[in-house]
Batch of 2 targets.
Target 1
Amino acid sequence: MGTTNLSAYNPDLVPDAGEMRFGIVVSDWNNEITWSLLDGAIATLKKHGATSDNIVVSHVPGSFELTLGAQFLAEYDDLDAVICLGCVIQGETPHFTYICQGVTQGITQLNLEYNIPFIFGVLTTLDMEQAKARSGGKHGNKGYEAAVTAIRMAALQREMEK
Ligand code: DLZ
């Protein structure tokens, strides 16, 4: 029960990403976690055909800045999808709640305002142990899931445009 890998998926159901271009915005707060998410996302995009030239990475200070960082990427590049990676760990004050609300609403708004998908790859955990388990530990790597979601949504959009 407690060791379910949340990142398990059937690779045959993931479209080819060879012609797609991706932006990744990653928060450097809790970077022991977020850089593992980044490695996982890049490896998964490449596994499904994306080339290094078509993966653009931008770093921002914290998860609260992910929304604007993602908007910059969407404004200044021609992307099929933007993946947002961060890790917010609950502390002793309500700060956690405000950051989580801010980034969740911000990314939702970007999805509705731009005609490309913005993927929510932000861990919101009670402690560091939970974060480690989801960034390359026993529950997988949220970066894999974010990458697969980006490819699937980009493919869906291409299908609509035909
Ligand atoms: C300030 C802050 C705190 C307390 N905790 C986190 C966190 O757990 N994860 C995270 O990504 N960022 C955190 N930050 C930083 C904010 O996201 C933001 O960078 C600052 O409030 C400056 O806007």
Note: The chain has one domain: 29-127+137-161.
Target 2
Amino acid sequence: MTGPQSEPTAKQRQLATYQVDPLDGRHLTTDQGIRVPDTDNSLRAGARGPSLLEDFHLREKIMRFDHERIPERVVHARGSGAHGYFQVYESLADRTAATFLHDPSVRTPVFVRFSTVQGSRGSADTPRDVRGFATKFYTEQGNFDLVGNNMPVFFIQDGIKFPDLVHALKPEPQHEMPQAASAHDTFWDFVSLQPETMHHVIWLMSDRALPRSFRTMQGFGVHTFRLVDAAGRSTFVKFHWTPVLGTHSLVWDEAQKIAGKDPDFNRRDLWEAIEAGHFPEYELGMQFVPEEREYDFDDIDLLDPTKIIPEEVVPVTPVGRMVLDRNPENFFAETEQVAFCVGNVVPGIDFTNDPLLQARLFSYLDTQLTRLGGPNFAQLPINQPVAPVANHQQDGFHQQTIRRGPANYHPHSIGGDGPLPAGPDARPFVSYPEVVDGPKERRRSTTFADHYSQATLFWNSMSDWERQHIVAAYRFELGKVTEPRIRTRVVGHLNRIDHDLATMVAAGIGVPAPEGGVENHGRRSAALSQATTGQATILGRKIAFLVTDGVDRESVGVLQDALTAGGAIVELLAPVDGEVSTADGGGLPVTRALTTVASVLYDAVVLPAGEEAAVALTGDGYAVHFVAEAYKHGKPIGVLGDGLAVFSQAGLTAPVPNRDGVGDAAGVVVQSPAGPAVDGFVSAFVEAVARHRHFDRPLDVVAA
Ligand code: HDD
């Protein structure tokens, strides 16, 4: 994961040609290149007189400022981007003609933009929401955009419903509330009347909607696409991104608090990890379905985007990896102006008749006209392919290139003959010649009719704690719905997913327990549970050590070194910033004052030894609350020697130490002797941190 920056790619070199840095030492000028002597005082008739209209510097500066904003994306407005590269493990030439999937030595440059869906551009990072995971591959055959989400299914089956879905989800039109939240009447009204949403909605109610970080989030292409090899043979494919750090989430209480404590929580994590050289990495996997097996799946139509193909039915084959190793130079120029278009595919990748996908092919191209102000958005540096562009498109707002010569049509015989349509040797994009025939009609296939069985599959696959979180999420969301009949309708749908689920949700929202319910089919898919998608690594975990004057230096040092060696980020938090004096008379630099942070911003907590420090922290409300809250959120807590007093002050009971003085239960690891952490403590704590969260502990003991 950590490693040197890669060699500059063609895309990097291309972007560099557009940079105007450095500006050091240059004279300030207007946009017309006129040097300006003063940018602090407008031109006036006398020092106390009126401003003069002839002040072209004032007019231009304010005119430019007035027009800095462009329309935010109609959905996915809030996002964060990063550059990197993709490399295939082994050639996929037997499946696809896409050359970036052939040569394992080729690093194809990519730009990825992660996003939330509902909120505005300035909203917080951690609402309960779907996350976008959009990747632009700058391949030698042109740009390929894989515009996916962190959930493998979508709410609706036909793109014609997208405006309805988004209107219902977005803040309500009369007062523009709530911001970045699905917990309101219109969303639940819509989904309760549109049962095809039920599968995606249960994902939305799960912890998947609260990713701990973009680095610990899966991505999915959602639709079934096609791969087409050089001989024209087609294979259906579903795309999966799997984070090397494992898939981890926040809990809802934490996510809400983070929205206030650090609204840029996910964005900051991505940026800081890349700056620190901890490059986020994802494995690309593919589920292959040969053309002739299209109808082999009894209950799944491959064209229905509300369905997954369970990994137990068609395994995910790892095909390559993506590393994000460079932050953007400029948020607006890159992250804001990047234009992903689902229709951007390269030879060897093609579409299917999924009606949601087909509508997307129009929407992404169309939306850029308003958002980026005209048809020339592909000329923006971040959108330009590294493959050469040659055609007769011309003019329009913001045309950047100066075309030469009179021939702007095809065919022509003036001034050469190009550009010419590419022959077979030039390997152009040729649409897969699928035979289609049918009456024109507005009708949903009957093979799209099952809206519940995969929601049941998801529910069945969850661990106990995941189910508790799902029930709590439905209760929270429906608890915000003011219309009782909407709540009742949703419970009716849940009863078709699982009777127990419906009963538990109903009990929390004042709705009568539903009767009957369908028989649960009992199927599960282990791959769906986050209880099984972790990784045994502490890489990138943020761990708070609570310290103050009198802390035992070795108690901090040994554990800090072990955690840092594993790639974790350790921060020493003290009641005040600066330095704390250690019990041995030395000093330790404080990373941050406790009052400026909160436990919700960390993955784990350590209470080091040191009698004087422990006494002081026991009387510090911030410190005690920090521990209690971390415990409530299932986070690992390491307690060394006298640090136990702080832990106990939070009303918590520590596990009983073994003969070596180390106790370990449900992510709480204690060492009774003071002094440096012993090996048994270090290994138990590292393991606890690697597991991320521990929901097997009694969580009702604290009120944090
Ligand atoms: Fe979409 C943005 C993902 C269905 C119309 N969508 C957008 C982005 C992502 C997705 C990740 C943000 C891209 C970026 O970072 O710039 N959308 C999806 C997925 C879908 C999906 C995974 C279903 C499988 N989308 C969908 C439909 C439509 C749209 C059915 C319209 C018919 N989506 C848009 C859009 C956006 C967009 C309005 C807003 C900004 C943009 O495209 O560039 O055109």
Note: The CA atoms of residues 539 and 566 lie 6 Å apart.
